[in-house]
Amino acid sequence: MQIFDTTLRDGMLSKKVQLNLKEKIKIAQLLDRAGIDVIEIAHILKKDNADEIEIGKAINPGKICVLVDTKPDNLQRALDFIQATHANIVHVYSMANIKEHEVGLREKEIDDAIKLVKDHVETVRWTGFDGNRAEHKILKAQMLQATASGAKIISIPDSFGVNNPEEFETILTGIFSDWDDKGTNFSVHCHDDLGFAVENSVRAARLGVHQVEMTLCGVGARKGNCNLSLFLKQMSLADRYNFEFIQQAEELISNAISD
């Protein structure tokens, strides 16, 4: 199982965390030195990603992940970002909780997006945003399209933190039991709106997911994400990574949190 850190992307959506570029670079370097498997550092939108490029230049490019939607202009920006940082992972996302009549259009968007970027990186992963609330057959159709187009990892997020552990485990079990391609790797991304981000992530890990997405100190949008240290301790994985560097990175985050 791999640890996917999104502190410098989703974590920065927390209005309470204020970091300068130097601090962000230091955090990325500490995560890299700690042995964290994937470090998501940027969300490609219609903005200048100059700071994120500098962060990417400071760490192992094989660990760098960039998040992007399916809009052609943003995908081109993602390719420019990849060229500048030598990032090796692209994380494509699209809204998965849609109506049945929208599936065909969404499948085409997924197909076009993944095919555009897949030859430029080693790994493409796809997230079905709000997928945990999507009708099963609608989510599955999009997942099948993503893997057929070249995605190696499918992320199932609790995007709004609405599931308790039993509900989330039931959703994941239903997905896995109805999935024939044993070569597909799965990931989860859990928010903490109801206080279950860590437990939901632990349940997913025990079901055998390939990656778990989380942040330092659990920072992130609204109530935050799965807390990296708490997850590692609950899963008895702290010895797999250099916890000293993780703690140093946590200290930087803690010092940047305002009341």
Sheet-strand content, in percent, reads 15-25%
Question: Which residues form runs of ≥5 with pLDDT under 50?
Answer: none
CATH homologous superfamily descriptor: Aldolase class I
Order of helices and strands: EHEHEHEHEHEHEHEHH
Q: In DSSP terms, counting alpha (H) and pi (I) runs of 4 or more, how many helices?
A: 9
Q: CATH fold name, please?
A: TIM Barrel
The first-to-last residue Cα distance is: 35 Å
CATH architecture: Alpha-Beta Barrel
How can the largest sheet be summarized? 8 strands, parallel, barrel
Strand elements, count = 8
Average pLDDT: 96
Rg calculated over all Cα atoms: 17 Å
Shape: globular
Task: Please state how the strands of the largest beta sheet are arranged side by side.
Answer: 1-2-3-4-5-6-7-8
Specify the helix fraction band. Answer: 40-55%
Given helix and strand content, the structural type is alpha/beta
What does this structure look like?
The chain is α/β, with parallel strands linked by helices and 259 residues long. The chain has a single domain, classed as Alpha-Beta Barrel (TIM Barrel). The protein has nine helices and eight strands. It has helices at residues 21-34, 50-57, 72-85, 103-117, 136-149, 165-177, 197-207, 228-234, 243-256; strands at residues 2-5, 38-44, 64-68, 89-95, 123-129, 153-158, 185-190, 211-214. The longest helix is centred in the middle third of the chain and has 15 residues, at 103-117.
